[in-house]
Design brief:
With about 120 residues, the protein is mostly beta strands. It has a single domain, classed as Jelly Rolls (Sandwich). Helices cover about 10% and strands about 55% of the residues. It contains one helix and ten strands, in the order E-E-E-E-E-E-E-E-E-E-H. A hairpin with a 4-residue loop joins strand 4 and strand 5. The longest helix is centred in the last third of the chain and has 15 residues.
């Protein structure tokens, strides 16, 4: 909910959207940054892609096998990463799935659009 110059919400009340099979996202976005909770089911894949947004991530739960610019690493809770703008990257979750917090600067327009659609659908 937007109030004056702030945005207030509860994660469990932010409708999720799914940009890939078995991947759910909850987006909190302002004007210049976005925070995204990503919940990936077991062995889920976010294909290699690139975008103009800088992306930082923090692994909360599980295993994330992350590839950035051809380099692959196994990331576990407490690990972080940054994918610079326009650099190819993608990920696969481990056998128990994973939860990741992603931060985008600026917010990704495609995710803003998907989040707005999810909110509109949940209001019906």
């Amino acid at each position: 909910m937007t109030s004056g110059r702030g945005v207030w919400d509860r994660l469990d009340q932010i409708p999720s959207f799914s940009p890939a099979d078995n991947v759910q996202m909850h987006l909190l976005a302002g004007e210049k940054l976005a925070v995204n909770l990503v919940r990936m089911g077991p062995n889920s894949v976010v294909p290699i892609h690139a975008h103009a947004n800088e992306q930082a991530g923090y692994i909360v739960r599980g295993l994330l096998i992350m590839t950035i610019d051809g380099e692959t690493r196994d990331l576990t809770p407490g690990d972080t990463y940054i994918a610079m703008p326009d650099v190819p990257h993608g990920a696969t979750s481990g056998p128990d799935g994973c939860d990741v917090i992603d931060i985008f600067c600026p917010p990704r327009q495609d995710y803003l659009d998907l989040a707005a659609k999810a909110r509109a659908d949940s209001a019906r």
